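Propose amino acids for all 153 sites.
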């Protein structure tokens, strides 16, 4: 009879520990959603090439007057998303360390993690909430871009 009491107590302790462990984990089924939107208000069609470790990973075409939105849902364990993932790959699995923005195949501008202090750097644009971001390419961006002098790619 004493062994039966010990076994029941043992199972109660195990059950208590299991319930405690599972009640401390993040709530499943409520992933964080990240939404990023690019606007093109310049008078040029734009091609954005994302690079990771100097290798081209993604190309985004953004016609003048248009916008593009990408939404990512984080899973468990959470890792978070940033603009770097938007430019790195369509599925958000690769993050870009730099981008080359080409305007009408005539002018270009390169941004990277190294020039994070440039307030026009599209890799680092966030609203108040890090889960949502917007960036607008303007005519000023086009005017400040470098001439391609032949080929922009």
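Proposal:
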């Amino acid at each position: 009879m004493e062994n039966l009491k010990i076994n029941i107590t043992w199972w109660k302790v195990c059950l208590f520990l299991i319930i405690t462990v599972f009640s401390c984990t993040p709530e499943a089924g409520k992933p964080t959603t990240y939404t990023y939107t690019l606007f093109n208000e310049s008078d040029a069609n734009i091609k954005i090439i994302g690079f990771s470790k100097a290798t081209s990973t993604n190309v985004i075409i953004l016609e003048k007057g248009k916008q593009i939105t990408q939404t990512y849902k984080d899973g468990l364990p959470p890792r978070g998303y940033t603009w770097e993932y938007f430019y790195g790959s369509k599925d958000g699995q690769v993050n870009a360390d730099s981008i080359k923005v080409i305007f009408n195949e005539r002018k270009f501008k390169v941004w990277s993690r190294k020039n994070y202090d440039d307030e026009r750097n599209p890799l680092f644009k966030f609203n108040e909430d890090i889960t949502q971001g917007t960036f607008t390419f303007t005519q000023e961006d086009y005017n400040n871009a470098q001439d391609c002098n032949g080929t922009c790619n």
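The first helix runs from residue 2 to 23. The helical segments are 2-23, 83-88, 139-144.
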